[in-house]
Amino acid sequence: MSTPAELDGEQLVERFALKALVESCLVLEEGIATVKDIDLGMMAGAGIIPPPFARADQIGLDDVLANLERAEREWGESFEPPAILRRLVAQGRLGVKSGQGFFPYARPDAGWEDGPVKLETRGDYAIAWLDRPPANSISPGVVEALEKVWIEVAGAEVRALVFASANPMLFCAGADIKAFAKMSATDGKDLLDRMHSLLRAMESSPIATIAAVNAPAFGGGCELAMACDIRIAADSAIFGQPEINLGIIPGFGGTQRLPRLVGEAKALEMNLIGDAISAGEAYELGLANRVVPDHELLDTALAWARKLAGQAPLSIELIKRVSASGDLDAGIEAEKEAFAAVFASDDAREGIAAFLQKRTPRFLGK
User: Fold this and answer.
1) Dist CA 334 CA 318 (whole Å)
2) 316 by DSSP, 3-state: which?
3) 206 — phi, psi (to 5°)?
4) How far apart are alpha carbons 234 and 292 in whole angstroms?
5) Homologous superfamily of 117-351 in CATH?
6) What does the alpha-carbon distance between residue 126 and residue 347 come to, in Å, rounded to a whole number?
7) pLDDT tens track of the chain, all 366 residues?
8) CA-CA-CA-CA torsion for 352, 353, 355, 360, nearest 10 degrees?
9) How far is CA 87 from CA 35, 50, 61, in A?
10) How far apart are CA 63 and CA 44, in angstroms?
11) Domain spans of the chain?
12) Helices first, then strands: H and E counts in the chain
């Protein structure tokens, strides 16, 4: 067995990196922190870039496992490969090269490699990857891309669609405030109409939709998730409607779908206060169908997709249409009118300006 004095510089770096991964896996297995939190902590606190889990995914988990098995033989039992690493490799989750390891990775279809939403088809189900750095914010271009994805899957043999984020730290931060601030009233109304049309089409379609919420889902991101049939949340997910802090109101259905999911009192609180809720609270309230460990989110969402893709399409369509009937369309029209009115107010201009200038707004009720 080699001693530290006999190691050259490259071996020292490898030894340190492997040990960091082993310890990170142990922290994860003990439930002390999530994959995301551990990697963030290792970057911010220890200056390790790339951090252990992301680095392992880039190398390939099968190769990392082989390196640890060799290290255990040469350097001792403290390098024994963690159980979670062995399990991921056995499941074929090898990192970037397989599309999923500790984190998920988009592998878009040919012709869908560029753009803010990427489509990845896997037989009778598909994944719509939100990929508009840095915040996946919803702009006119994102709405257009979502429409394009929906048209594509509606015309194919896809029976279930998962909305996921290519950004491991964020699902969707909401509407692109800078883009909204530059829109005319006509452009703003057109964007609202298009987004609402898309979300209502999703709600009345034979295609089952699943939101795999990995991290913050704010504003329009939360509203996109609420329009899906199923919401699977990672431990790190949080949900919120913070539009009130900008002097505006939710514009993509937040005043209508949220009370239907969590109840009128809680929805009013969330919309009036603007504070976010955790994944656990979202589950207790009915906003999330399941909460799972971060690294199990995509697998869980895809398991639901496979199950739903096998259900009778006509039954799915009619169940969804009946469930989403009633006064939802009337409520959405009322929300759109209210959004247009408040968006044209002085308070809205002040709130948006304060947000962009990173200061506290001064609302005057005008």
Assistant:
1) 25
2) helix
3) -70, -10
4) 5
5) 2-enoyl-CoA Hydratase; Chain A, domain 1 (3.90.226.10)
6) 41
7) 445 446 667 778 888 999 999 999 999 999 999 999 999 999 998 888 899 999 999 999 999 999 999 999 999 999 999 999 999 999 999 999 999 999 999 999 999 999 999 999 999 999 999 999 999 999 999 999 999 999 999 999 999 999 999 999 999 999 898 887 788 878 888 999 999 999 999 999 999 999 999 999 999 999 999 999 999 999 999 999 999 999 999 999 999 999 999 999 999 999 999 999 999 999 999 999 999 999 999 999 999 999 999 999 999 998 888 876 668 878 888 877 878 777 788 887 877 788 888 888 887 777
8) -110
9) 15, 23, 10
10) 26
11) 4-98, 117-351
12) 16, 9
Cα–Cα nearest to 213, from 193, 188, 245, 239 = 239
3-state secondary structure of 92: coil
Contacts of 26 (CB under 8 A, 6+ apart): 82
Query: How, if at all, do strands 230-234 and 208-213 pair?
Result: parallel
Residue 64 and residue 24 in contact, taking contact as beta carbons nearer than 8 Å:
no
Count CB-CB contacts under 10 A for residue 221: 29
Cα separation, 40 vs 53, whole angstroms: 10
Look up residue 90 and give its two tokens. 């056995």
User: How many residues in total does the chain contain?
Assistant: 366
Two tokens at 246? 């900008």
State the Cα–Cα distance between residues 35 and 39, nearest whole angstrom. 6
Amino acid identity at 332: I
Whether the CB-CB separation of 164 and 199 falls below 8 Å is answered with no
As a whole number of angstroms, the distance between CA 24 and CA 82 comes to: 10
What global pTM score does this model have? Answer: 0.89
**AA identity, residue 350:** E
Homologous superfamily assigned to 4-98: N-(1-d-carboxylethyl)-l-norvaline Dehydrogenase; domain 2 (1.10.1040.10)
Helix H segments across 277-312? Answer: 279-285, 297-309
Active-site positions read 223, 243
Show Cβ contacts of residue 309 under 8 Å, excluding neighbours closer than 6 positions: 123, 124, 125, 158, 159, 160, 208
Kindly give, in sequence order, each residue whose CB lies less than 8 Å from that of residue 356, ignoring residues fewer than 6 positions away: 177, 178, 181
Q: What is the spatial distance between Cα 206 and Cα 312, in angstroms, rounded to a whole number?
A: 9
